[in-house]
Amino acid sequence: MSMRRKFFTAVAVSGLVFAAPALAETIAFTNARVVIGDGNGPIDGGTVIVRDGRIVAAGANVTVPADARIVDASGKWVTPGIVAGFSRVGLVEVGAVSETNDTQANGSPFSAALDIAPAINPATSAIAVSRAAGVTRAVVAPATARSIFAGQGAFIDLGADPNPITRARAFQFVELGEEGARDAGGSRTSAHALFRNALREARDFGNRAKIAGGSARGEPLSQGDDLPPDVRMTDTNAERPNDVLLSRFDAAALVPVVTGRQPLYVHVERASDIRAVLALTREFPKLRLVLVGVSEGWLVARDIAAAKVPVIASALNDLPAAFETLAATQSNIGRMKAAGVTVAIGMINDNDSHQLRYEPQYAGNLVALQKVPGATGLSWGEAFAAISSVPAEIMGLGNRIGSLKAGNVGDVVIWDGDPLELSSAPIAVYIDGVEQPLDNHQTKLRDRYRTPSEGALPKAYQR
């Protein structure tokens, strides 16, 4: 199978930025085992049609257009690209080297106002490694430093190009639980008081400044335009009480959260902390909560389902590594799914900057869990959806990303076997219909030293 590279241009659609082939092209992936990514099982002998960077059709009995370039995927699996539900990819090269680590702003006077989009480096080695593993999109979040508010995360593509941002200022991220307690002064009491106070300040600030808090369509706009003109960090006219704790920038950044225009991702693990977060909707009914981590979510699954709050959970967090995860179990995701909770797989505090390639393994473990007596796992289709269409739906992009449904972007991966098996690997990756390079720093090192010969080695290896 040829691995042709294509050049592309950036195209903005409804405030989102996608890549598009510089030359219009129709591609037909034929004779494949096709996975739509919507929770259903694989389709044998299927075909996927991509035209001008978008899915036209996928499934069995699909007619191949006469002008299509045929990619014969006999014996292969064709799936949508993997969507990492939570990560910090692109923000870190070497975690211990501060100059290459932009996850937290330890000395910044701002918190909620921080926007990580300008810090994401598409040349980070972890992006190329993740892309070669079939990951095509990722939710990227900042980490907290001196406040429970970490700032505004982004949704990116992992293409080999200089424009990774699909949606900037996609959500606000906040830490509660044990870490939030530390950030807020030493207790959960302080963290929740600070949290409620910040939301009240933002609501009051928005009312005084007459800020709607987002786009008229109810979604963030493109980078730099996520907030209306009168809230883009320039508003100094609205009067404020003297007892406020947030800066104007941070208060303005939280206005879209309290008005329901921007999702609020909340990291929380303990069952009691989950209940406390859900209770916030009584005072702030417009909050669009997304729970992250949620190790003890199975204990309060009915409450989460009743509140219709989606979850991005850690799939293998099954040990009592902290007091807030004493009830952790690998059946957590399966039990929440069975209770009616919308659940995707994420990797918070689990090699979330470098190892997004673990996601298919995690999903596969949940499939295998069905064979363990007393455990609760996921079907194959449900597990793959948890790393493809479900995280896209939680981000509000399920009608554009995460599956091979007609009209979605052409994020397509060809695998040499079952993508949820450790022995399988991608042999081709397309993002927005553009075929991507699969080489990276690791593959180059492998190729260089797999069969060493004299004369082509560094001095340290020469005799």
TrEMBL record:
<protein>
    <submittedName>
        <fullName>Amidohydrolase family protein</fullName>
    </submittedName>
</protein>
<dbReference type="Pfam" id="PF07969">
    <property type="entry name" value="Amidohydro_3"/>
</dbReference>
<dbReference type="GO" id="GO:0006046">
    <property type="term" value="P:N-acetylglucosamine catabolic process"/>
</dbReference>
<dbReference type="InterPro" id="IPR013108">
    <property type="entry name" value="Amidohydro_3"/>
</dbReference>
<dbReference type="GO" id="GO:0008448">
    <property type="term" value="F:N-acetylglucosamine-6-phosphate deacetylase activity"/>
</dbReference>
<feature type="region of interest" description="Disordered">
    <location>
        <begin position="441"/>
        <end position="463"/>
    </location>
</feature>
<comment type="similarity">
    <text>Belongs to the metallo-dependent hydrolases superfamily. NagA family.</text>
</comment>
<keyword id="KW-0378">Hydrolase</keyword>
<dbReference type="InterPro" id="IPR011059">
    <property type="entry name" value="Metal-dep_hydrolase_composite"/>
</dbReference>
<dbReference type="InterPro" id="IPR032466">
    <property type="entry name" value="Metal_Hydrolase"/>
</dbReference>
<feature type="domain" description="Amidohydrolase 3">
    <location>
        <begin position="331"/>
        <end position="433"/>
    </location>
</feature>
<keyword id="KW-0732">Signal</keyword>
<feature type="signal peptide">
    <location>
        <begin position="1"/>
        <end position="24"/>
    </location>
</feature>
<feature type="compositionally biased region" description="Basic and acidic residues">
    <location>
        <begin position="441"/>
        <end position="451"/>
    </location>
</feature>
